[in-house]
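Dear colleagues,

For the upcoming journal club I promised to circulate an example of a predicted protein-ligand complex. I picked one with glycinamide ribonucleotide because it came up in last month's discussion. The inputs are reproduced below in full, followed by the predicted structure.
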Amino acid sequence: MPNPESRSYRIAVLASGRGSNLQALLDAIADGSLPARIVGVFSDKPAAVALQRARDVGIPARALSPKAFASRVDFDAALFAAVDEVRPDLIVCAGYMRLIDGAVVDARRGRVINIHPSLLPAFKGLHTHQQALDAAATEHGASIHFVTPDLDGGPVIAQARVPVHPGDDADALAARVLEREHPLLVETLRWFAAGRIRLAEDGVHVDGRASVPLQLAANLRFA
Ligand code: GAR
């Protein structure tokens, strides 16, 4: 008899903090709207709430402390050796707040993605909501991109847009963006699990063709 688990799409999640994006994936898998399996959750912070969310539903969760390693290269080698052990099809950085060594990323080209709280290429790095306010942006949002050695600079796969309202502060804007991050991540992973998205030599391909970033529509699917 075929083992149903052997066919399911295997996702490893890296997270440093509260893990609301991880929770959105767990919820979508539980309600049957995301045909995939989270095979491991990994963190650089032993106290990350994300680890507990995974353990609560019986998913292996592991933290490695950067302080225990002589260098970033050594830390990333150990972390990704642990990730490789769970044999993921895709590695999802969901609120993972550390730079990843370029060689580690290159060795997994097309298999590591990140969710970033801005409409890339605008506002890379930290404090993206404040960056958007300081730039008087009228539109803001979140992007999912392939991770490359170029920080927040890898090919963009998909985006969700929100308006910036007069009087917004960084917290108000962050909350509006986060609400769209969750369906954006779930929908993107549905397309990955269906084999529709891949990284080609010339950038992101969707359904076998070069693609501009997919846009999350009001119905929470790609337009
Ligand atoms: C999310 O807003 C995510 O886009 C951001 O961290 C938050 C994590 O929230 N990621 C980055 O800033 C990556 N540079 P979560 O832990 O509740 O999913």
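Two points we might discuss: Residues 15, 17-21, 94-95, 97, 115-117, 142, 178, 181 surround glycinamide ribonucleotide (CB under 6 Å). Helices lie at 4-7, 20-30, 49-56, 72-85, 102-106, 128-134, 170-193.

See you all on Thursday,
B. R.
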